[in-house]
Specification:
Two copies of one chain form a homodimer.
Chain A (H helix, E strand, L loop, with lengths): L20 H8 L3 H8 L7 H14 L5 H6 L6 E6 L5 H16 L3 E6 L4 H13 L4 E4 L7 H7 L4 E4 L9 E5 L1 H14 L5 E6 L4 H16 L6 E5 L3 H13 L6 E4 L2 H13 L9 E5 L13 E4 L2 H21 L9 E4 L2 E3 L8
Parallel strand pairs in A: 1-2, 1-3, 3-4, 4-5, 5-11, 6-7, 6-8, 8-9, 9-10
Antiparallel strand pairs in A: 10-12
The structure holds a DNA duplex (16 and 16 nucleotides).
Protein name (chains A, B): LacI family DNA-binding transcriptional regulator
Pfam families (chains A, B): LacI, Peripla_BP_3
GO molecular function, one term (chains A, B): transcription cis-regulatory region binding
Chain lengths: 352, 352
DNA sequence: TTGTAGGCGTTATCAA
DNA sequence: TTGATAACGCCTACAA
């Protein structure tokens, strides 16, 4: 008799998804140990027992409890993915690839969206860590809370796209500086001299690097920027920035955008101002969602190796987990992997 | 000296994220029970003890183990979201809203992508169920495996967008028939008589309903379809279908698409054929991603109440969970909630 | 107000 | 080849 043999009390939430290894054992009149071993395909169990166990398991719809398994100290099959925004095509692609890679390793994706809010980032991270995940892939906010950094020290972490100095762990990034530099050079080579840049905040590593690429390219020709607008990496900000710079006199002849979301906002602003690209202004986007090809003659853009970085991030994470498992502590230096973007020429830029 | 001061034996995978309630208790020279109660804010614990516990907890970075908590019979904070494709703007929006709603209830999103593959759907579902989630939100594949249906009977489930008869549980859907009917009528009212429809397979509930709407509208005017192409709901299929129907003689003057991905593919095909919309053919899309506004004069489309269905899905799920918790078994009839789409007129359709 | 003693479902160790 | 038993971290009925 268990603790639930009191009369009035209702059964404690059972009747749910509560088939255990012991239920299977009872049905077969064997010990639960044997069932466990049979399911683990232990060589110590006869083939006949194994197949009888498997039959009953299938018939009863038994599924092992991940929680109980974890309690015994086995590694979790969960990997946390923390990103700013899942509607952003770039991160959606990342999520897809990470999910695919994990699935092929029988692991699962715990998704958290931060909206670039450091407090939410911390809350989501705490919640994820309560599940004791195998690892974490994170696109950190601009200024993570100190506790966020502290918590991440105790779990295998890979930083994606953005890198924050206070965070340990490997990083997989894009050569943003080179990307924007190529975009800027392209417009300079086409005869433009009044160029504007709309990018993310300088508190973001990506914001700094992309701005740096723009400035590097201008410096090569001894030119000054016509306009630089930095802010939140959302369409709203680019709408505002582009609207105001295009309404001023001596407006730029070319605009370089620092993200896909900013590109969307910039095009929306031009559309609202009844300005056409490349007639009224040349535009170079960042990242290459499928629709760039369709927007009025196609958007010239910096194509990012999204597949590469996402695949690499999971590969790095999983291999570090393996190392950690075999060689005790992970002594391998975290290190950073960087991928090169490439410029795709379409109809949104023209020679002056 | 921690628990890892044994000499020869290596610590059993500890050194990881292994701070337990007992470690906190030891640091304070009190029993782990007191710590547990302090964290649960039990009235039986003195305020002084509580604050001392909280201080040490914060300082040591203790986080409760979700597994251990689950083992004690408490409900999981995980909700599984099973969708065909996270790169699809429609499902990305769904994921964002579900993630937000869950976060505000201190719950987490376990994301699975099926790629519309029933076997993968089953594998992912099994993996999710091993975590004993609180519930599941699913956009089922066209033909789920019988085991998938069987497994879903033991967990609170909400079907989203697509409805499959063999699946129990509530459903939150869009009035697809009305949506496509409105799109078709719009073209008919503009003088079109040769209309084509490109949609998803009829094995999908959405495929059947959307096709039905097209046929209903034509039947009202006593017209026949110029072309109907049904297939996989991917851009590739629409590229193929539109390319072939526009290359035939007596081609349609208007095309109605049965999904956003199909719309993308259709536009790509027209672009490749050097055909312009609405000059060479009128186009009505489905769903309204931000870029529809920017694609060559804007795409006339059927706007779907994505926010509504996603919010409702989580609301329904969470409220059913509450009912289940209070009133023993959930006896409330599952039921279906349906939302109405609306037509957005832009530049991709013209009067004939 | 605090402490002791189980037990949740698994797996690993030891014994038969 | 199989079985009994203990332990993982947490929560709670019961005892102090």
């Amino acid at each position: 008799m268990g603790p639930n043999d009191t009369q009035g009390a209702r059964p404690p939430l059972r009747g749910d998804a509560g088939i255990t290894i012991r239920d299977v054992a009872k049905a077969l009149n064997i010990s639960h140990t044997t069932v466990s071993r049979a399911l683990a395909d232990s060589p110590k169990i006869s083939d006949e027992t194994k197949s009888r166990v498997r039959a009953v398991v299938a018939q009863m719809g038994y599924l092992p409890s991940a929680s109980a398994r974890m309690m015994r100290g086995r590694r979790s099959s969960l990997v946390g993915l923390i990103i700013p925004d899942i509607q952003n095509d770039f991160y959606a692609t990342v999520a897809k690839i990470v999910a695919d890679s994990l699935a092929s390793h029988s692991m699962q994706l715990l998704l958290s969206v931060t909206d670039d809010n450091p407090d939410r980032e911390l809350r989501e991270l705490r919640a994820i860590l309560e599940t004791r995940p195998a690892g974490i892939v994170i696109v950190p906010t601009a200024l993570p809370r100190p506790e966020t950094c502290a918590l991440l020290q105790n779990v295998e972490t890979v930083q994606l796209v953005r890198v924050h100095a206070d965070l340990a762990g490997s990083a997989v990034v894009i050569d943003d500086r080179a990307g924007i530099k190529a975009a800027t050079r392209h417009l300079l080579d086409s005869g433009h001299t009044r160029l504007a840049f709309v990018g993310g905040d300088e508190t973001l590593s990506t914001g700094r690097e992309r701005l740096g690429g723009f400035q590097d390219a201008l410096a090569e020709r001894g030119l000054k920027a016509a306009n630089i607008s930095l802010g939140s990496p959302r369409p709203e900000f680019a709408r505002y920035a582009v609207t105001s710079m295009m309404s001023a006199r001596n407006r730029p002849t070319g605009i370089i955008l620092g993200s896909a979301e900013l590109t969307l906002g910039a095009l929306q602003a031009l559309r609202a101002l009844k300005l056409d690209w490349p007639r009224d202004v040349s535009v170079v986007g960042y990242h290459d969602p499928a629709w760039f090809e369709l927007a009025e003659g196609g958007i010239t853009t910096v194509r990012l190796p999204v597949e590469d970085i996402a695949t690499t991030a999971t590969t790095v994470l999983l291999s570090r987990l393996d190392e950690r498992q075999t060689s005790g502590a992970s002594e391998v230096s975290p290190g950073t992997v960087q991928f090169e973007p490439s410029l795709v020429l379409r109809g949104s830029t023209r020679r002056l």
